[in-house]
Design goal:
4-stranded antiparallel sheet; 11 strands; mainly beta; 1 helix; Immunoglobulin-like; 54% strand; 5-stranded antiparallel sheet
Length: 150
Amino acid sequence: MKLFNAIICLMLAPGFYFIASAEKVHFQDGGRYTQHFNDSLFKITEKGEYGIETLWGGKELKTGKNDIKLVVRNKKDQDVEGARITVEASMPQHGHEAPMPRVKDEANGLYRVKGLRLSMPGKWRIKITVDKDGAVDSAVFDVLVKSEIR
């Protein structure tokens, strides 16, 4: 039921397009992690505590302001609610770092990242850290950012 509610939230969220659901299950070191959406990027965190799914709303990241969604589940494939999530974006080859965006817990393992500002096109490294009850772990997503079309 929680997954159904999360899918409905995504469908109704302003500025986001419907993303087709097609579950894929990942296994690592005894953990089970479900990836729920076709158009998402999915990573298991470095220590295997969490599975993080990033939803760009059917779009790619662009220069300027980006709002994204995250689905966070633990290694037992349960929703992670009430976690402290940080998102750090950097462009290592140029030494650029983006300001830290706001992250809001929207319930049922769904988090909204507002205001991820990427200053220029190119390769960006997005590090997402989850801290829930002292279990801190992170995943890094390397993404190609394109210029915003004007």
